[in-house]
Structures are given as C-alpha cells and as structure tokens.
What we know:
Elements: E1 18-24, H1 43-50, E2 53-55, E3 58-59, H2 65-74, H3 78-81, H4 98-104, E4 108-114, E5 126-130, E6 140-142, E7 148-150, H5 155-169, E8 176-181, H6 218-222, H7 243-248, H8 250-253, H9 257-277, H10 281-316, E9 323-329, H11 348-351, E10 355-358, E11 367-369, E12 373-374, H12 378-385, H13 400-404, E13 413-418, E14 429-434, E15 437-442, E16 448-453, H14 471-488, H15 491-498
Amino acid sequence: MAVAVGVVDYSYAQGRPNIVLIISDDHAYKAIGVYGNPLGRTPNIDRIAREGVLFTHAYVNNSLCGPSRAAILTGKYSHKNGFTDNEHSRFDGSQESFIKELQKNGYLTAWIGKWHLETKPRGFDFWEILPGQGNYFNPDFILMDSSKKRVDGYASNVIEDVAEQWLDSRDTSRPFCLVVGHKATHRTWMPDTCDLGKYDKVTFPLPHDFYDDYEGRKAAQVQDMTIARTMLMGYDLKMFDTQDAEDKDGSFARMNPAQRARYAAYYQPVQADLAARHLSGHTLTEWKYQHFMRDYMSTALSLDRNIGRMLDYLDRHHLTRNTIVIYLSDQGFYLGEHGWFDKRWIYEESFRTPMVMRYPGVVKPNTRDDRLVMNVDIGPTLLNAAHVAIPADMQGQSFLPLLKDGRRKGRKAIYYHYYENGEHSVSPHFGVRTKRYVLVRFYQKVNAWELYDLARDPNEIHNLYGKTGFERTEARLRKVLVHLLHQYDDQDALKIVNQEP
C-alpha cells in the first residue's frame, strides 16, 4: 500500500514491519562462522541466519565503501546515482532513495554511524554520522546542526549506544527504519581493548593462492595491494619504528591514557618478539599475514557483539516479531587470497558480500538461498515489505518474492562496474557474472579481457579469454554483458564494448 506525498496515514502503521539495516565495512564472508569458517566467532550474525536466511550469492555493484552505500540507498548503479568512487564523488541527496520513500509513507528514519558519502544525509528524521572513515577510538560525530562532538569509547560500542538511544526516544506509534553503519572491520583493524589477543593462539592457514604469480592476468600484475609489499608495519600492524611515529599516528594520538596503556601492553611484547626474530622474505610476509588476521578477526569480535546487543534490544522491547533485520558488509574483502588485502575487484572475494536477513513470519528459519542477489536490491525489497511503491528509476529488484517462493529462478546474471583509478593501482573494469562464469573488461590502466570458469576454477587463477575452445562461451557472455549494459543504461561501458572487434 503506497500513500501519496503529503497524505500520510498512520492508521495501518503497526501492520508494517520495522526495519533494522546493519552495514559493516570490509567484512569478508570467509571470516564468518555461518559461512563455514570455524575460526569465525560470529554467533550473532550466525543467529540472524539461523532465525532467517543466509544468502550465499549476495554481491555488490562496485566494491568500495561509498559507492556501495550509495547503491543501497538509491537502488541504482554508480553511473546512475553519481557516486562512482571514494576519491572524487559527492552524494546527490536530492535523488530518490528507499529511505525517502519510507519517510513519505509514515516511517521514522535514522542513520547512525559510518556514512562516507561526503554530503549530509537527507530523508532521515535523525542522523549522527562519522566524518569520512571515522575512527575506532573516541570517534567524532557530525550532528544534524553541523556541529561535531567527540564521544569517549570504542566506535562499535558507541554507535550501538547511539542507535539504542534513538530507539528509546522514538515515537512508538510509528514504524521505523534504522540504518546502523559500523566502521569495523575497515583498515587499520584496531580491536577494542577487551579483544586484544583473542586470536593469539590461532595460526591461520595460508590461502593456497597466497603466493599467486598472476600469470595471464595483466591487471593483477600491476596492482599494489599485497600483504608483502603494501601492508605497512606501522600504520597497519602497529609496529612503529619509534615512539614519535606512534604518537603522530592519528589513531593512536586520539586515544586516552588507559586505551594507550592497553595497546602498549599488548603490542610492545609482539614488537620485541618480532625484532628478536630478524625475519625477512616469505617468513616476514607470513608473519605479517598472521598478525593482520589476528587484528582483523579480533576487530570483528566487537562488531558481532554489538550486533548481538541490537538483537537483544529488539527482544527486550518486544520488537523482534515485527522487525526485519538485515546484516551485510558494504563489500567483500581479501584475507590473503592472491596475497592481497583490500577489495575493489570483480573477483569473488571482493565482489561477494556476506548478507543475512531475519523476517519473522515471512522468512522461515534456517533458510539458505543460493540465488543471485545484489546490494541494489535491498531498497526495493524493504519498500516491498513496507507496502510502498518502488520508484521506477530503481534498478534493483525486490528479492522478497524469491524468499516467499523457493521455486522462482531469480537472476541468471549480475553486472559489476568499478571506477576508481588510483589507490592500490587496480584498473577500472566492468563485467558480468553468471552462476558458472565471469567475464570482465579492464580499461584505462590496463586494457584486457578475462574469462573464468568458476566450476573448474573457483579461485579465478586461469584466465581463459582467447583460449581455444572457449570462443562460444566468450560470444555468449558478451551478449549477456551487452544486454545488461543496455538494461542498466551504462553508456560509457557500452561504448567501450562496441569499439571492440
């Protein structure tokens, strides 16, 4: 049921679900217990999946923080919503969003935490956001009157505190949509002080392609995102050369004495042990990997704990039965696969994102859904659930019908386009993924095509483009790609493809 602008009818509000959308940053699906990692201590994310649905093939339009959030808000690809990269884009808040549609139709709306869209949020009754990437300790917040405040504490805890305060103060006669934007698990992976050392007794197995040589993949050969070369001993791993260097680091400089003392008590013995070993070459690279993983996974502990706090809040206030809860990361992340950290690529580890959803009375517990869904689908899905008309310019599609009818096929293919031509030297590229194949076109920094057979090569090591015997597959996938370029009206990408022989 859609209500016209200016004619809001609250009489049926309690018949529509509340919504809690939790968005983390750089949380790899391979780091989560319910996705099969026995080392992933994520009982609360796992709980959402157990009480609802686990999406095993959820993907993003553009594997970067800002572009993914813009796509979630607008239900549109980057070339349509205007936020293509983190370096130059500013979000145009005048355009339609699922939040604005919910607000027009009686919902209370709020965004709390990481925003990273460079302009002020619009369409929200309340917002309190981190500036830029935000900070893990004693984070600053931008308030609705444009002032700033600094809050003592750890970001994941503080963001949840503010979210619960807003829930406590809301008009309970109206349904609500609350977006909680977490900073974790973004670089530089700083755990809460209570989580330091929680993975010290774990030795993480090296991914089998950790020492990938990138043969046959021109774009991978020129990237700059390896743990060996790019991960910094000080900034990333807290192994500073001098005390002065640590003091000047922005993350440490804002800590209070108690926080600094806890960090010093943990990291100084680690650094002393490292110095005594005199590591180099592969041995040093593998040490960096283990230390990175311990920091990363420990940072995820507080994230999951605060997701649990939100679930407990809904339980205590008798909101669970009438509240949709969705958890996802704004994109995937590399945990040593191909020797990398970070994201950006169309390859599986960064393209695919964890996503779980609980919708009591609609989604059966312990549901596993293997169909292709995307972040641009979230807005249409939530509008569908709220009985609000989906704007015609939204390019995503509601996956609610899929959840209600397991026999529906869903998408046969999904489209991806990454634009940023700067950090980590990842070439801009676009491509298509079906259940079995990935076809990708790199341009600007590198001009090349790649083709992967996921059934035989799930780690995307062997580029089959131009190989004898794959001509028909290439031609078929090009047709699928061109069809999606027309469907989503990506004229720039279409121009590149049409220039090909």
